[in-house]
Amino acid sequence: MSTETSLFELSRPGRQAWSLPELDVPGLDPEQVFGSAARKDNSLPELSEIDIARHFTRLSVLNHHVDKGFYPLGSCTMKYNPKVNEQAARLPGFSDIHPLLPESACQGALKLMYELGQYLKEITGLDAITLQPAAGAHGELTGIMMIRNYFEKKGENRTDVLVPDSAHGTNPASVTVSGYKSVQVKSNEKGRIDLAELKQACSENVACLMVTNPNTLGIFETESRQICDIVHSCGALVYLDGANLNAYMGIHRPGDAGFDAMHINLHKTLSTPHGGGGPGGGPVAIKAILEPFLPKPVIRMSKDEGRRTKASSGNSTLDTRHSTFRYWLDYDRPDSIGRVLAFSGHFGVFVKAYTYIRMLGSQGLRDAAECAVLNANYVRAGLEGIYDLPYKERCLHEVVFSGSNFRQYGVRTLDIAKRLLDYGIHAPTIYFPLIVAEALMIEPTETESRQSLDRFIQAMKEIAEQAKTDPEQLHEAPTQTPVRRLDEARASRQLDVNYQEPGN
Ligand SMILES: *Cc1c(COP(=O)(O)O)cnc(C)c1O
């Protein structure tokens, strides 16, 4: 396997990707027009159109991606995203609007955002929402800021936020950034929050508990209601990290269980390809008590009592009132935490989430969640006994194995992950969650077929065999990829961003 040659190396003097007729007007001297800014050297590559098309097509398949193969990367749902979402987001009426348009000229966009908010409130069982936050972690910060303002307004000085050890890593980070102290709560042997520990940790210093549900072990907190009751009884609130709502949407509504605030990762649960740092969406849905603190502006709808018209034909008169709905941005929010992002958030992501929800409908959303859980449990059953399974509970959308049983052969989880690349499968998340040694966190997502899951299970079984019989081979992996095993830390330790033209 080789890597792709650069455009500079492919360049041949005189090749071009265009054909235009001879100039029939006097040519321009760039130096006369641009002065010293005119380019003197001709250092751009010279290529034909087909050279360029093939170069970029080859480049596009060097990396693994979800349109090319299975991507069991837990936590970040690299699921397949229907292309119709992309099409909707590219409709010129959506993609070409300017964020400073007057409300009257972008009623459609405001309506879409308003309705998306309504759907998300229905899905979560909560009362109010902001779409502004740019991603999940940003939603966490927004939620905690609202909770902080809520207690400030009540004149209560609470300093701590409880974070279970099975929480996502962004949780304690958001707590610290928002000025609170993060206090860890231990999980029990089943991988769930220990209620006795929680009771002990609750006090009048606690502002809230942040629960990741399903937690990073892929396990559902079945005692959500008791958890909320315990925390509420000390006057604190409960924040839910709902990044993985795809595990239970349409089945369980966090608002009904007592959660006060939660973020939703639109880019995980409700489609939008991500993972390259592309735009996301982390709406925060909340109980009514937090509503005054929402970021501003808040998107609102009013019903305008429209004109009344009478139309007569023969003896009958048709009397109609044309009510219209008007969507607008409410800035008059004295207790708001302020803006958390420019304008109204990542609008393209909203269009994709909206399209996805409308395409699936309520039953379809539930089906998606059930398939995500079914697929993860299919993998769990397929690999149990071959890889260690530290938490035997039935999982939700992801399952966490441990590669510890291969340490005796000198094989680590990293070697297993690297070998998977040779099978044309992306590696799952490894060494996370931290509470599992040699962790392998597998999230197949709802979009994978049984055949692709079987292929994955077969690959994992073969790798387990190789670990026992030929561990050296695993240390060499990957061997079939454009580049071999890389030094994971070197790129950041010896940062080199200078492009060197070949031959220089
Ligand atoms: C992905 C994830 C986050 C962070 O979301 P971002 O959009 O990457 O900021 C937080 N919590 C959980 C459980 C997640 O899976």
Structure description:
The chain has 17 helices and 14 strands. The chain is α/β, with parallel strands linked by helices and 504 residues long. It has three domains: 7-62, no CATH class; 87-356, Type I PLP-dependent aspartate aminotransferase-like (Major domain) (Aspartate Aminotransferase, domain 2), CATH 3.40.640; 367-493, Aspartate Aminotransferase, domain 1 (Alpha-Beta Complex), CATH 3.90.1150. The strands form four sheets. Strands 1-7-6-5-4-2-3 form a seven-stranded mixed beta sheet, sandwiched between helices. Strands 12-14-13 form a three-stranded antiparallel beta sheet, covered by helices on one side. Strands 8-11 form a two-stranded antiparallel ribbon. α10 links the parallel β4 and β5 (237-242). α7 (136-154) packs across α8 (170-177). It is globular. The two termini are 25 Å apart. 39% of the residues are buried. The mean pLDDT is 91. Pyridoxal-5'-phosphate binds at residues 75-76, 135-137, 168, 170, 212, 241, 243-244, 265, 280, 282.
Protein traits:
single chain; alpha/beta; seven-stranded mixed β-sheet; three-stranded antiparallel β-sheet; 14 strands; 35% helix; globular; binds pyridoxal-5'-phosphate
Give me the secondary-structure category: alpha/beta
End-to-end span in angstroms?
25 Å
Helix run count = 17
Tell me the Rg in angstroms.
Answer: 27 Å
Describe the structure concisely.
The chain has 504 residues and is α/β, with parallel strands linked by helices. Helix content is 35%, strand content 14%.
